[in-house]
Structure formats: C-alpha cells, structure tokens
Design goal:
Residues 53-173 form the DUF4426 domain. This is DUF4426 domain-containing protein. InterPro entries: DUF4426. The chain is mainly beta. The chain has a single domain (4-173), classed as Domain of unknown function DUF4426 (Immunoglobulin-like). It has three helices and eleven strands; from the N terminus they run H-H-E-E-E-H-E-E-E-E-E-E-E-E. Strands 2, 3, 4, 5, 8 and 9 form a six-stranded antiparallel β-sheet that branches. It has a five-stranded antiparallel β-sheet with strand order 1-11-10-6-7, with no helix packed on it. Strand 4 (86-95) and strand 5 (104-105) form a beta hairpin. Helix 1 runs antiparallel to helix 2 (20-30). The chain is globular. The two termini are 21 Å apart.
Length: 175
C-alpha cells in the first residue's frame, strides 16, 4: 500500500512533462484505494484495471474518486471542492497515431448521466480542461452515505459522427 507521502510524490513527478497536468490527475484517480484507511477510499464495483476502453483508433480513459483524495493544490488548481461527499469523474480521449507511438489527446464532446442504484439521477456537468497538449473533461457529483454510482459516459471525438459509450460503476463511502 502507498502512504500519502508516496502518493503525493507520484503526482509531483509529472509536473515537467507536457502532459503533466493530465498525467497527474489520472495518477491521482488511479491511486484510489491505495490509502490504508478503508473508510477513506472509493471501493470499485468493477476491476481496478478497467480504467480505459479501446475503440479502434481511440482510447477513452476514465476514473472517479472522492474529491478529498485530491491534494489541496490539485483541487485548487482545477476549481474542485474537496469533500468526502463529492466525487470527481475524469475522462480523456486519446487517438492512436501508430503502433508503438504515444497516444495523442484529442478534443471530444463528453456527456455523462450519473445515477445511483435506486435510479436517482445525479446532476453532473462536465467541463473541458486543457493545459499544453493535455485535454480532459472533469465533473463533480455529490454522494450521501454509501452509494454505488453508475456513470453512463458518451464521448464523441472531434471529427467522428457517432459517440463511444462507456459505463463506469463504483461504490463510494462518504464520512
């Protein structure tokens, strides 16, 4: 298990990369569940390795975490309210340029419906964030107690006519 110091160090290592902000945010979301306090982690209702889906020439990367898992600096930089009762969804679309070449972030329309298992629709508005070459969409939603949320994510890369659909299902426990 990673302790908080190592988790924050991992995020800081991406600062000098042109994709630094995107990689830092993705790293923060991928480190969910690495805390030693089980009541402070988002518990996946699916396998942890299901954080992207391949759509031929594109990959859609996605993850969700409680916003209190973000460092105060990252939350402040992106205008995110840190709270045990808030969840952030992060989505990015990468285009495959060549077999072994790095994936390239692309503009995309991202629309999300979020709901719990009682069928209650959660209000989530996605907003585009870009810094340098990094392009991603983030949105926040509130939770109460223990909730399993389903994120129905529709992504349409610029220049494509049909959306790609991804469903992310996660359990979150608020304080």
């Amino acid at each position: 298990m990673l302790n908080n110091t190592r988790k924050h160090t991992a995020v800081r290592t991406f600062r000098n990369s042109p994709l630094g902000p995107l990689l830092a945010l993705l790293a923060a979301t991928l480190l969910v569940g690495c805390t030693e306090q089980p009541e402070q982690r988002a518990m996946p209702a699916q396998a942890l390795d299901e954080t992207f889906k391949d759509f031929g020439n594109y990959e859609v990367h996605f993850n969700a975490l409680r916003t209190d898992e973000l460092t105060p600096e990252v939350a402040r930089a992106y205008g995110i309210q840190r709270s045990a009762n808030r969840v952030m969804l992060n989505v990015t679309v990468l285009r495959k340029e060549a077999e072994h070449a790095p994936r390239k972030p692309v503009e995309a329309t991202v629309a999300v419906d979020a709901y719990n298992l009682n069928g209650q629709l959660k209000d989530i508005e996605m907003r585009r964030v870009s810094e340098g070459e990094a392009i991603y969409s983030i949105g926040e939603v509130t939770i109460a107690g223990t909730e399993i949320l389903v994120f129905d994510i529709n992504v349409t890369p610029q220049g494509e006519s049909s959306p790609f659909n991804v469903k992310l299902k996660r359990e979150f426990v608020s304080d």
